[in-house]
Amino acid sequence: MKISQLVAQYFTVLPIGCVLDEDQVTRNLREAVRAYCGYRRLTNAQPEAGIHTPIDAQAGATGDQDFDLTPSELALIEPLWHLKNDKENAIAFEASRTQGADPFGKTAAECDAAIADFLRELPSKSFSFEVRSI
Prior knowledge:
By secondary structure, the chain is mainly alpha-helical. About 50% of the residues lie in helices and about 0% in strands. The protein has helices at about 5-10, 20-35, 70-95, 110-125. Helix 2 packs across helix 3. The termini are far apart.
């Protein structure tokens, strides 16, 4: 499924209490994809000039930057994406405290800890080795 389709699907089933816009959600997904690509190349992205996955940090999810993620890639990328969305949403809710609102859900600190745990496990989760018999 392409990055743009994943973002559209996220907004179709938008979680209650989410204050993020499409740009924020897309940026979080692209950050999660880049974190995954630090350990493994995307199946449907061609390597370029010594770069195993050509992700432009500044580009949006359009054209050649709208990568098609396989189900196995998405299984590793999606939890990190949701954690990043939760963190950004928590920051917005915590900022609303200055206006007298009582925030609910995860705190930004809880999200930071969960992201750190996930990133610590990501290298071993994304590693695979092709077994060949002689």
